[in-house]
Amino acid sequence: MKTSHSARAVRSVPTRSISWIIVLGALSLMAFQATISSQTAAVTRAQDPGPRQGAAAAGGPLPGLTGQQTEYFLAGKADFEEAESITEGVGPRMNLDSCAGCHSQPATGGSSPAVNPQMAFANKDGGSDLPPSFLSLKGPVREARFVKNADGTPDGGVHALFTLNGRTGANGCSVPQPDFAGAVKANNVIFRIPTPAFGTGLIEQIPDAAILANRTASAAAKNTFGIRGRANFAVAGRTVSGQTNNNGNDGTVARFGWKAQNKSLLIFSGEAYNVEMGITNDLFMTEREETTGCQFSATPNSMTDMDATDPVQSMSSIEKFATFMRLLAPPAASATEPGGATSITSGKALFQSAGCALCHTPSFTTANSRIAALAKQQVNLFSDLLVHDMGVGLADNISQGSATGREFRTAPLWGLGQRLFFLHDGRAADLVTAIRAHASAGSEANVSVANYLLLSERQKQDLLNFLRSL
């Protein structure tokens, strides 16, 4: 039989060559399969999609404000963004010289930006301070608190990072920076990052009764998950009403700050103005640092101007700050980004079934208000505004009111889609790390985190997409 040319060609290949062809083919196939497997694993492994890109989904005024209310909002915003000077009272100790420097991501009123302005501020106007080791140009913005005093008694107070030393206009004022290096070495310093102010006027208008009723709702499920939670703020012997776990000033429920230590936006503003910038005001009239030769403005620095003819301009700075935050709209969630509507809807259901919503309550409704834009509004904050035991892993060993060193307020999740740093000290820059950090000995979140870890990678991705949609 006549042999074809192709058949002869095959027969002409030596056996040794055929063996090498087989080996090389097998190796190529194995390499291809490994590549495909690696790519598949990369695709299916759940990961934080990262901050949503595009325009900021927050930063504007509440919808429905009147023209005059909008004027108050804009005046407050301008003061919130202004950098304060020595003559205006900044210092002698401070963490920064403006509110918006800390609260700027993704817009004025937010949280820590990607580039930490504290690094440049250390030497602004000739300042001679050294940035502490726990600050980084890549953020987050931080304040420092010492856990204990030198004699071992509880401290817990904010120790300002910077001083007026060497700055133009300080006229020789000199105060020492705290010994941050020694505090770090002794494991005696903890950190806090800025909390977003978006939608806080709505939070302020949530009735106490609604917060307390939600605390006892779904009791069986919360008991199964080991979730307790309680309102803060109580100081033994100093609560007017005699009710435990409530604000020591008037017996109502406090709700602002990492440990729900502040009752109202005005208190929040007054405290921050004095603690973070060293500026005395209507609520806090004495300096935290009264070193002779370091006072450059009449005390208090910012008060209501009773002689002003313009009502807006008569307001003190802290009144403007509080008004700005009170009228600041909540963040807008996305129905499609990231991952698409189907993924986000699935993730929301998984968020509920995993038990996350037992603390991160999806919504409340505000009470009546003289400002119509704040009255009877749905507040999609994803927080119960209670403090919970977060275990040894997140403990900062700082007590505020009745909140212990392991207790923190449930952080509102709205706006999470464009945040850069997570947890009270900013230790996490992605959601997966933040979720896992919720689990440790004694944490009320342990069961919920375990449920999250049992999800498939696709389900985890849906849940992460849902969180980044907020």
Show the helix and strand layout.
Blueprint: H1 5-11, H2 15-44, H3 67-81, E1 93-94, H4 99-102, H5 117-121, E2 143-146, E3 162-163, H6 180-185, E4 189-192, H7 200-204, H8 208-216, H9 219-225, H10 265-277, H11 311-314, H12 317-326, H13 341-353, E5 364-365, E6 378-379, E7 387-389, H14 391-394, E8 407-409, H15 431-437, H16 446-454, H17 457-469
Antiparallel strand pairs: 1-3, 2-4, 5-6, 7-8
Helix pairs in contact: 3-12, 10-12, 13-17
Sheet/helix structural class: mainly alpha
Number of H- or I-type helical stretches:
17
Envelope shape = globular
Low-pLDDT sequence parts: 1-42, 238-245
Strand line-up in the sheet with most strands: 1-3
What fraction strand?
Answer: under 5%
State Rg.
28 Å
Q: How would you characterize the largest beta sheet?
A: 2 strands, antiparallel
**H/E element sequence:** HHHEHHEEHEHHHHHHHEEEHEHHH
**Helix residue percentage:** 25-40%
How many E strands?
A: 8
User: Whole-number average pLDDT?
Assistant: 90
Give the distance, in angstroms, between the N- and C-terminal Cα atoms.
Answer: 77 Å
